[in-house]
Design goal:
This protein has 15 helices and four strands. Strands 1-4 form a two-stranded antiparallel ribbon. The protein is mainly α and 320 residues long. GO terms for molecular function: transmembrane transporter activity.
């Protein structure tokens, strides 16, 4: 038991934080948090943040960063909207959007791995590039996608199972399960962890570090496109600011979930629970009678506190 507690101390800790927070919100707002409707609402919104956070978790474990994903969402979402409006084929538009997102991720990977630009700098640049490009192509105007609600793709990605359960929550759990297996049971996951722990050692061990890192950037681009298409389907609209607002939520989910800001440490489970914590905070604050302005303050405080706590844990573990 003691060995298990030591091995899964972060997962147990983050689960305890989630349970404690939920208990507080139930005490403060029993009418809201004892109603099934609020959890159905969470199941329709949290998966978008969680999927983005899961993709970015792999990059951060590998010691990299991607700040461009909100803008990649904008350009891939615009691709989906324009192609759907031109052809009426939602499946074709989805494939094109994922291809554009993957290409944007490949561009980030090539800049970082082949050109040698630090990932934080490279993705700041591409963030501005893709945001400007999508706004220019859309002429700053939103796209109405109401007809997409009648397509099979809509029912597949954001429909309601038995009329209640949002499909995106099932996709999120399924993808999280696969990513968890890859990270913990597959050679690719071991390579990601090893690169983040010490990239020089990883090279000595024969791991193709450049290839792995490029694949991670491509994967993040594809995930950004997937979430963007899901958002378009859910809202039946594309707008030039699509993706903005996710940056803080995604990083908060990752760092609350115990992923090390220094790389080499992180779990899919932790990120998933971190996204759930971030998702319920705003509803909890507002239903408790506080102003919505408190939300960002609480998010920021939680990020600083969690990063500080985990940095202390990882440092003590390394020096033990």
């Amino acid at each position: 038991m003691k060995v298990l507690m030591q091995r899964f101390n972060i997962q147990i800790g983050i689960s305890g934080v989630f349970a404690g927070l939920l208990a507080i919100f139930i005490l403060l707002s029993p009418r809201t948090f004892l109603s099934p409707q609020i959890y159905i609402s969470f199941a329709s919104t949290i998966p978008f943040t969680a999927l983005l956070a899961l993709g970015l978790t792999f990059l951060i474990i590998a010691g990299e960063m991607d700040l461009s994903f909100p803008s990649v969402m904008a350009v891939s979402g615009l691709t989906f909207a324009e192609l759907f409006l031109a052809t009426g084929n939602a499946g074709l538009a989805f494939i094109a959007a994922v291809a554009v997102g993957s290409a944007a991720g490949l561009m980030n990977g090539m800049l970082v791995v082949r050109v040698g630009v630090p990932s934080i700098i490279a993705t700041i640049g591409t963030q501005f590039f893709w945001r400007g490009f999508s706004t220019l192509m859309a002429d700053g105007l939103a796209r109405n996608l109401v007809p997409v609600r009648d397509t099979l793709l809509h029912h597949l990605f954001v429909g309601r199972l038995t009329g209640t359960i949002p499909a995106q929550s099932l996709w999120c759990l399924g993808i999280a399960g696969v990513l968890g297996l890859i990270l913990n049971r597959h050679a690719f996951g071991e390579s990601v962890l090893c690169i983040g722990d010490d990239i020089r050692t990883a090279r000595v061990m024969g791991i193709r570090t450049g290839r792995v890192r490029i694949l991670l950037f491509v994967f993040m681009g594809a995930v950004s496109a997937l979430v963007s298409v899901m958002t378009c389907l859910e809202m039946a609209n594309w707008w030039p600011t699509q993706g903005e607002g996710y940056l803080l939520l995604v990083f908060a989910s990752i760092f609350i979930g115990g992923t090390s800001v220094f790389g080499g440490e992180g779990t899919v489970f932790g990120t998933l629970v971190g996204a759930a914590i971030i998702g319920i905070i705003e509803a909890g604050i507002i239903s408790a009678g506080f102003s919505g302005f408190w939300t960002r303050l609480v998010h920021g405080a939680i990020i600083v506190a969690s990063v500080s706590v985990y940095a202390t844990i990882f440092r003590d573990r390394d020096t033990a």
